[in-house]
Amino acid sequence: MAFRTLTTAAAAVTVALGALAVPASAAAPRKPALPGDFNGDGRRDVATGAPNAAVGGLRGAGLIAVAYGSAKGANPKQHQVLTAAGPGLPGSPEDDAGFGQRPSSADFDKDGYADLVVSQGNGNGTGIVYGGPKGLTGRTATLPGTTYGDGGTVGDFDGNGTADVIVRQGDALLVYRNPGAKPGTPQTIALVPENGEFVRTKAVAADFNGDHRTDLVLLANDDIDGEPQAPRIELRLGTASGLGARQVVARRMVDGGAAGDVNGDGRADLVYARDGDDASGARSIGIRYGTAKGLGPEHVVTQAAKGVPGSHAAGDGWGRSLAVGDTDHDGRADIAIGAPTAPVGKVEQAGTVTVLRGAKGGWTATGAKLISQATAGVAGAAEKGDLFGYDVAFTDADGDGRADLAVGNRGENKAEGRIYVFPGAKAGLTVKGLVQFGPDSLGIGGRQAELGAYLLH
């Protein structure tokens, strides 16, 4: 598997093709890097998959763009753009290949540089691009057995201190335990429909019971001729031998989720979007706090609740994207909720992001914020179809220990897209030091990249 750099600039990161770009002196064991810290400098980098981007005149061939972290946050001047190239997985660019869907990251070989899980949605599968002191390198590995890839789910499911990765393959999950530099044969977990033709899933991985092993939640439903059946939330706890048996936590339709420690008790909490089920048809957010046995009862949050900003209306897409991260480093994670089709004033489908603060008792509306392109200090203007908040992800681009919020603005400038990175601070998110960049800053303008559609979480 080979990759190439589409753009290089004076400060851009180059890729060494077919070889590990790490000097021999760097071979000594190092502390594993944080996910997304591809050059091992202690700062998480901002990466986005753009599977609909044109590459070399090929419609929807797809790419992944990385803006590296710096002392001042995400730095688009130090950037890297990857696309599939050459023979082998994930294959050469071609029309509608969809390279770059839902990227994920971990330091699989524990060399102090985070690695990137990449996939191509046209049947060429999933692989790993390894990091190095200058960023992502030309050293790659194929995940054996995959033919269709839409990203990986990363976690330490057996608690041995080494990251594992799970990918969807047909009617099964393939679990690569401790893939390292040479992934081996995966374990297989069959996905058996309860009442349908096949199972649709969205995965969330975190340590919900506090035993230092990652657990897996599947937001699942069966499918019959495109119609959802038997919706459910499934939980598989991590064990010393990998993932345990399936538990059905609840039966309801859920559209996407995220996890983090909202109440600061040392266990991750599950946050997910609920389809509109009140009189207005507006969507709501469900929160299940982690317990010693897994997940607790559901707590429902709506924009109609006192202190929660936003429109509370059907069609605003509240919860289309979710992220959980600690913006003020108080040990309690905040919740970012994207509503990409929400109005801003009279401007339709401009998009907003709601940020709810974490607290000892759980989420709180105290200090809640509503962010859009109309927010003071945010460059640009709220325009119809911008889809601000289409994806949201927490990172730490400046390495100060406070989570920064990356917001994808997929529809900006006729589907060119744009990314905004709001720094974390003592009082939570701030516009001071806000970084924003589009395809032109990365040398990929004019490709209808829809930059920010799939952020690295």
UniProtKB/TrEMBL annotation:
Keywords: Glycoprotein, Repeat, Signal. It holds the Pfam family FG-GAP. InterPro entries: FG-GAP, Int_alpha_beta-p, Integrin_alpha_N. The keyword Glycoprotein applies. Residues 1-26 form the signal peptide. Residues 81-105 are annotated as: Disordered. This is FG-GAP-like repeat-containing protein. It comes from Actinomadura parmotrematis. The lineage of its organism: Bacteria, Bacillati, Actinomycetota, Actinomycetes, Streptosporangiales.
